Amino acid sequence: QRKDLLQANAAIFSGQGKALNDYAARNVKVLVVGNPANTNALIAMENAPDLPRTAFTAMTRLDQARAVSQLAARLKTPVERIKNVIIWGNHSATQYPDVNHAVVQHYPAPHSQSPVRTAVNDNDYLNG
Questions:
Q1: pTM above 0.90, yes or no
Q2: Which ranges of 24-95 would DSSP assign to H, the alpha helix?
Q3: What distance in Å separates the CA atoms of residue 116 and residue 81, rounded to the nearest whole number?
Q4: 2: alpha, beta or left, given left = phi > 0 and alpha = psi -120 to 50?
Q5: Coil, strand, or helix at residue 16?
Q6: Which residues are catalytic?
Q7: What is the band of 62 on the pLDDT scale with cuts at 50, 70, 90?
Q8: Contact status, residue 119 vs residue 108, Cβ threshold 8 Å
Q9: In the chain, alpha helices (H)
Q10: How far is residue 95's CA from residue 114's CA, in Å, rounded to a whole number?
Q11: What are the pLDDT digits (tens) for 99-109?
Q12: Which of 23, 31, 40, 42 has the fewest Cβ atoms surrounding its Cβ within 10 A?
């Protein structure tokens, strides 16, 4: 990723974090959409030490929802039943969807649970 972009974003999101820390309500929710979203969210969060860490999220949440949606479609099951899908990296070419801890609830039968890798049974698909 471009070093100049990271440096510019560091200054922007550092200032945003400080402003949030000083002026935002303590129950604020912050969604960072500027790429690299995870890095920018971390910079903002680190500059807002008085806000809960859980107040910050990044656009990568959208990528996580997309991954869950694709798995649910592949397994013909509701998205609510897919749990623990992780997205590593930023919203960029560095992104890696990780299903190694993911499970499908009520699959293949009610009151059961299967690892996503077992349920999908296609490592070529899962490893992209």
A1: no
A2: 37-46, 60-75
A3: 11
A4: beta
A5: helix
A6: 91
A7: confident
A8: yes
A9: 3-23, 37-46, 60-75, 116-120, 123-126
A10: 25
A11: 999 999 999 99
A12: 23
List Cα–Cα distances, 61 to 113, 124, 126, in angstroms: 24, 24, 19
With beta carbons less than 8 A apart as the criterion, state whether 102 and 82 touch.
yes
Place of tokens 């912050």: 30
Among left, alpha and beta (phi > 0; psi -120 to 50; other), residue 76 is: left
Contact 103, 114 (CB under 8 A): yes
Structure tokens at 19: 């402003």
Reference 72, options 92, 47, 99; nearest CA is 99
